[in-house]
Please model this.
Amino acid sequence: MKFFLDTADLNEIEEAASWGAIAGVTTNPTLYSRIGGKLSDFHNHIKRICDIVDGPVSAESVAMTRDEIVRDGLQLAEIADNVVVKVPTMVEGLAATKELAKHGVPVNMTLCFSVPQAVLAARAGARYISPFIGRFDDISEDGLEQVANIVTAINNYDFTSSTVNGEQVEIIAASVRSANHVTQCALMGADIATVPFGVLKKMVQHPLTDRGLDSFMKDWEKVQNA
Ligand code: E4P
Model:
């Protein structure tokens, strides 16, 4: 399983990259707005992220028609070789994905909440599909079960004839809210989890690690004073 960092914050990205912990980054309009991002600086900001991370960096198109999404996507793809264009799961998004894949541009199909949506995304040529866990839980549904179903359904088929360079589509478990979400996603075989920095930090921690470290330090003090 690989981890992407779900943020537009350069400090968080630099820190997580220094841990050797992340294989990519996902951003969205909310995450960019959260760091005070300006429209005029958007492409430069994505470039800065691409310079830090040696892996796919998802940048979202906010266009609503296929032609605009394709135009947007082609411009985003010009920023750096590792840009992945994030496209919402909707009819215009599917059509744009098909077109972008033809141009060799990898797409991360986002806001995916069902097996049919995921299979359609894969068929259209998406390189990544992002089912959301937390937002599904928020409406009293089972986000983890939905991701498990999507992983099973996608792994039942070979979509390599539709994707850029014949690569197998990968599932990015998104809207991850806890380390337990990550555990469950790893057990069900999700290819990637994109996690906020706060969740990444919690993933490193365990109370028994802290307790063990504390007793080792105390015992080492005894050794030093012996
Ligand atoms: C995924 O690519 C999205 O950016 C993200 O995971 C959404 O998470 P949220 O539901 O916590 O906003």
About this structure: The longest strand covers residues 83-88. The domain at 2-225 is CATH 3.20.20.70 (TIM Barrel). The chain has one domain: 2-225.
